[in-house]
Each structure stands twice: as structure tokens, then as C-alpha cells.
Design a protein that fits this description.
The protein has two helices and 18 strands. It is mainly β.
Length: about 270
């Protein structure tokens, strides 16, 4: 059970040079507040930020505070305090209760943030190139894609082929997002010159944890009357992903009890 915060309250420890960009959210600047909570220290992180994955469902599922020693070994990994405000938006804030002895041994602090996102959007659209409707063999079907904003969760490559009134649709989905489960369901629509849907087919792909690629394919049979008036296409997707984002690491050499003294906390720069 979470204890009531009591006792001393420290002045905020500023974070310098913190600017981290990601496909789900950004974090910039910030500070740490410390309060006594019985035998623990309540450590609260506050910063500016924003969500970058666009409109859709968003859940801050968990934030883990990971303390590591000077050799990089994990001392403790604690979930966020769910009884207090935890937010990712224009304001980023979360809190953890950590034992004094663990804080005293720690050289750095890392936050591992788990978010769940459900996002619907158009991934690709365009005009179809010429195709011989009477040929019996399989034809690769060219298209011209309209410019679309870069998608933060998934980059798609589309390949189309035509044979005897059938369209073969192949999609490759690629993500650079660190995740623990990533799935997208697609709708592929054939359109007339006015953008009206003539035919539609659904498909889906899943990208396993630690993988970057997923594949999906389908086919659709078109009547002759549809073949004569088809001019364009649209590929829409609904992505459900559990994203894993690292914030930090932050050096803790400014804290009382640490050997090195510094004016404030700094982000530890990655090698290179």
C-alpha cells in the first residue's frame, strides 16, 4: 500500500541538457523533486513534453525507475506510484518511492516507459498506372503515391500486381519503434476518379517483439465494370502497439552522499 508523504521536501534538482525525441512522445528539460515518505524517498520527475503519435487511443501503462550502480548493474527496478498523478502530454510527470540505501548506491537513473497506442489513419494513397485488362499473364502494376505525412509508428511499402481481374496486394511494414507487441490491420480500397470506393479488402500484419518487419498480403476479384472505372487506391491502417521508451539515463552525482559534486543532474550521453 502506498504510504502518505511526510517529512522534509528538498528544493528541485534541475535537469540540464535533456531533450529526447521519440515516435510516441518527446521530453524536454525538467526537474526532480524529493520528499520523505517514511522509510523511502518519493522521487518525482516533471518536464515539458508532447505526444507525437497523432490522434487516437493513448495509455500510459507503466513507468519503471531503474537505478544502476557505477558498473551498470541494476540495483532496483520500481513501477510508478499509481496513486499519484502520472501524465504524458504538454506536461510529463511521474513519481516513484525508492529506498534510501538504493539511492545512495546508484550512479544513474533510467526510466523505462510503457505506453499503449491505438491509431487509425491513411498510410498510403495514390493513382493507379495503366494496366492491360485483357492480358492473361501476371502484370506488375505501377502507381503514383500522393504525398502523405511521415507516420511515426509504421513505414509501409506497397506492391500491386494484376492478373485476369484479380489484384494482388502485398504490404511490408517496418518500424524502428522499440515495442512489446505491434499489430496493424489494413483496409485496401480501389477508387474511381471521384474517390468513391469500388471494392475493398482487409488484411493484417504483426511484428514480433525485437523485430522490425512485418508482412501482409491479400487478393481481390474485380468485375469488368469495376476494372473499367478504377483510377486510384487508398491504404488505411489501424495500429495497436505497446511501445517501450527509455528516458535517460540521468547521472546522480549532484545528490548528497555521492562522491562527485555537480551543479545539477545531466543526461548521460550515449557512446559516440
Amino acid at each position: 500500500m502506498t504510504t502518505t508523504t511526510r517529512g522534509w521536501v528538498d528544493a528541485a534538482i534541475a535537469v540540464t541538457d535533456c531533450r529526447q525525441r521519440g515516435p510516441i512522445f518527446d521530453v524536454e528539460g525538467g526537474a526532480f523533486d524529493r520528499e520523505r515518505s517514511y522509510d523511502n524517498v518519493l522521487l518525482r520527475f516533471d518536464a515539458r513534453g508532447q505526444r507525437t503519435c497523432g490522434a487516437g487511443g493513448f495509455e500510459l501503462a507503466n513507468v519503471y525507475a531503474v537505478l544502476v550502480d557505477p558498473d551498470g548493474a541494476v540495483i532496483v527496478r520500481r513501477s510508478h506510484d499509481s496513486y499519484r498523478q502520472n501524465v504524458i502530454g504538454a506536461i510529463v510527470t511521474w513519481a516513484h518511492e525508492l529506498p534510501d540505501e538504493h539511492l545512495a548506491r546508484a550512479a544513474a537513473l533510467i526510466y523505462e516507459v510503457e505506453t499503449r497506442v491505438d491509431l487509425r489513419r491513411t498510410l498510403l494513397a495514390g493513382t493507379l498506372g495503366p494496366v492491360d485488362l485483357d492480358r492473361e499473364d501476371r502484370q506488375q502494376w505501377s502507381y503514383t503515391a500522393t504525398e502523405a505525412p511521415t507516420d511515426p509508428l509504421l513505414h509501409v511499402s506497397l506492391s500491386l500486381a494484376f492478373r485476369r481481374g484479380d489484384i494482388e496486394v502485398n504490404v511490408v511494414g517496418e518500424t524502428a519503434l522499440t515495442h512489446d507487441g505491434h499489430s496493424t490491420s489494413f483496409e485496401f480500397d480501389v477508387l474511381d476518379e471521384h474517390g468513391h470506393v469500388l471494392a475493398s479488402r482487409t488484411m493484417s500484419l504483426s511484428i514480433r517483439t525485437a523485430d522490425g518487419l512485418g508482412f501482409a498480403d491479400t487478393s481481390m476479384r474485380l468485375e469488368k465494370r469495376v476494372q473499367r472505372v478504377m483510377r486510384g487506391f487508398a491504404l488505411r491502417g489501424r495500429t495497436e502497439v505497446r511501445g517501450l521508451t527509455r528516458v535517460g539515463p540521468f547521472r546522480m552525482d549532484a545528490w548528497p552522499g555521492h562522491r562527485a559534486a555537480a551543479p545539477g543532474l545531466s543526461v548521460v550521453k550515449p557512446p559516440g
